[in-house]
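Entry:
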Amino acid sequence: MATTTSARPSFTSSVSPPSTRRMTMNNPPTDRVSSSRVMMLGAAIVAVAAVGFYYIPGMIDSKATGSHIVNSVYCAVMTLTTVGFGDICPSDTLSIYGKAFIIITSFTGLGMFCGPVMDLAAQWSKTVPGGIVALTTVTIAIGVVLFTYIEDMDQVDAAYMSFITGTTIGYGDITPSSDEGKLAVALYAILVINVMGGLLQPAGDFLERLCHKTVPSKKKKDA
């Protein structure tokens, strides 16, 4: 008589071995901002904004000189970075559609530069040789060289414009006039604002320490 052997179901333990658990605890997964994703997303946002400035009537002043494509890219970056020199965009004949587009673009720019860009700047600024102050000095020096060479500014005005652009103040008292200068300012704005963003953390920490006040704890009276 043949004996029938019942097959036992095999169970695999879902509990990780202690060594694996120790490795997971010692090396937890890190959530870092991807520089390539930030650049791709930023480029896509700039492209969409530039198309809007190119095609929507009244977005750029009709008296603006130079290439309309360059002016569109320049105005797109100035709007997204909130530098907003106000030199050639928008025009006095801006339609309601243009105003709505600028509102949407400005919110997108704030979300981008106050979000992923700031996070990326804080992330890599800690690994730069010489620190963020040295990097800021080099970046401002690059701006001085660019604006002195391309826009024929003196060194004081070039340094002033570099700071005004990097801090997104954008008074508009000094602005680029040539196509080369507009492209240089657009690219430089993206770079310098990223670098200036790295200064926010230490500057914010310092000002926060100045604003804090130590309040002595009150001792409870004995009943």
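DSSP finds eight helices and no strands in the chain.
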